[in-house]
Write a structure and sequence with these properties.
Length: 259
């Protein structure tokens, strides 16, 4: 082979060798690219999974947030309802308390009225007890005679008054009362002479005594009973003249009109 041919062969060999070296680098580069592409693909998958998870988390968070808001809304409604119920109960309690106070006031008024009534009864009972105590005390002969006279027990009162008058121990008003009482009992018993005697003595010995108002009126009635109308008129006029303000003076005026 000539020298030129050897050179071509050598050049070809170098070119082949040179071409073979570039191919390996390219392979390495391609492998690196492939690895990077694979890594990128894996990264993209990871990112995609992460994105999905994030979306799921966001959805869950949204659901939880919705539940929280719903729970919060329900809680607020329940709280407002509870507050409203409490207000209603307070209103009912206030009305009940008002009614209770009014009832207490009425009860207190009734108790006060009952207390007053009981006090009145107690006073009456005490008064009756005191009167009973006084009545249980030993009465004087004068008091016994007055008591029997007021009770209409003339059969007992008459001898008692007669004994008191005969004793001479009673003067003034007490004697005037004895004479008046004896005169009235004689008038009731239609003992006209005794009645005129007692009423006459009452007027002559106790001319200013208030008992003469009744005494003179009954004396006039005694005269009428005996048919002595003129004596009755004079007696009635004397009564009106001496005792014009006495309640028996009006009776005397009425009686004069009938005579």
């Amino acid at each position: 082979m000539n020298k030129r041919g050897l050179s071509l062969v050598a050049l070809s060999t170098v070119l082949i060798l040179s071409s073979s070296c570039k191919t390996q680098e390219e392979i390495k580069r391609e492998q690196m690219v492939d690895n990077l592409a694979l890594q990128m693909t894996e990264g993209q998958k990871v990112n995609a999974n992460t994105t999905v998870r994030l979306q799921q988390i966001e959805e869950r968070l949204g659901m939880v947030s919705g539940q929280i808001e719903e729970t919060d809304y329900k809680s607020k409604q329940e709280f407002q309802q509870s507050v409203s119920t409490l207000h209603e109960k307070i209103s009912v309690l206030e009305e009940s308390n008002k009614a209770y106070k009014e009832s207490i006031t009425q009860i207190e008024a009734k108790l006060e009225a009952q207390e007053k009534f009981l006090n009145k009864i107690l006073k009456t009972l005490n008064s009756l007890t005191n009167k009973k105590k006084i009545s249980n005390k030993k009465k004087t002969p004068f008091e016994q005679a007055i008591s029997n006279y007021k009770a209409g027990k003339y059969n007992k009162a008459k001898p008692q008054f007669e004994a008191l008058l005969a004793s001479g121990k009673f003067k003034g008003t007490n004697e005037a009362r004895i004479l008046h009482s004896l005169g009235i009992m004689a008038y009731v018993e239609k003992d006209n002479q005794a009645a005129m005697g007692y009423f006459g003595k009452l007027f002559t010995e106790h001319s200013k005594s208030g008992y003469n108002g009744s005494g003179l009126l009954h004396l006039a009635k005694t005269f009428v009973r005996l048919g002595e109308k003129e004596q009755a008129k004079e007696t009635l006029n004397e009564l009106i003249k001496r005792f014009p303000k006495h309640r028996r003076a009006q009776d005397a005026k009425k009686m004069l009109k009938t005579l």
